[in-house]
Request: fold
Amino acid sequence: MRRVLPFLPAVLALLVACDAPRSATETADPATLRATSSAAAPAATVSFRRELSQNDHRFVLQTTGEGNQRQLQLRVEKNGRELTTTTQVVEGMVADAVAANLNDNKFPELLIFVTDAGSGSYGQLIGYEFLNQGRRNLTLPELTGPAAQGYQGHDEFRVQDGRVLRSFPIYLDADPNCCPTGGQRTIQYELPPEAVTFRQVSFSNQVK
Reply:
C-alpha cells in the first residue's frame, strides 16, 4: 500500500493559497493610489485687500471670489488684541475702504465702498461704527428729489474734510448708458453725532 507523506496536505494547502487572487489592497500600486487621489482645492482669488488704522483700532479686510457675489472677511483689532473676525457676502466688488472718525467722537468708523458688477456700476456704502461693545451699521440715505435727477449709477466715493463725497455722471433723457451728457453731480454727506444714517448737506452740478 502506498503511504501518504504526512506533510503533503500542508504543501497542497500552501499552493492553493498562493494561486488564490489577492485583495485590491494587497495588489494596489502606491503610484496608482497617488495618481487617483483627488487634487487639493485651489486657493480662492483675493480681489481686494486693505489694512487700515484709526486711533487704537486696526482693520484688515479682504474679498475673495469673482463676479457679482464675493466673500468679505473683516478682522478688527484694538491695541493689538483681536476684537472680532467676520465674513459676509457682498453684492459687487469693493472699490475702496476708509477708516475715519467723521462725527468726532471716540469711536472709529469703517467705510467700505462697493460697486455693482452690472453695466450701471451702482454704488453702495457698507459702514460700521465700532463702539466699546460691538458695532452698529451706518447707511446712506436714499437718493431722492433734485439730487436724484439724471442718476443712472457709475458712482465714485471718497472722504474729504470730514464728509463723504459721492460723484456720478448726469444722464439726460436721450442719453445712452455709454454716453452721459449732463455733466457730473457731487453730493456731500455728514454723519451727525449719535446718528446711524448719513445726512445729505449739499450737492452741486459740474457741467463739462
